Amino acid sequence: MHIPVYCLSYHNPRRQESMQRRFNKAGIHVIFYCGAEDERLNDLDDKNRRVWSCMFGHLDMIYDFCQSASEFGVFCEDDILIKHDIAVKIPCVAKDMRELKLDVVLLGYLISFSFYKTNHSDFRLIAGETDTNLGDEYYEYPFDLWGTQMYMLSKSYAKQLLNKYYGDYCRRSLLDNTMVHFSADWTITKDGRRAALARPLAIEDNSSNYEDPGQADLHRNSHTVFYTPEFI
Question: Which 3-state string (H, E, C) describes the chain?
Answer without folding.
Answer: CCCCEEEECCCCHHHHHHHHHHHHHHCCCEEEECCCCCHHHCCCCHHHHHHHHHHHHHHHHHHHHHCCCCCEEEEEECCEEEECCHHHHHHHHHHHHHHHCCCEEECCCECCCCCCCCCCCCCCEEECCCCCCCCCCEECCCCCCECCCEEEEEHHHHHHHHHHHCCCHHHHHHHCCCCCCCCHHHHCCCCCCEEEECCCCEEECCCCCCCCHHHHHHHHHHHHHHCCCCEC
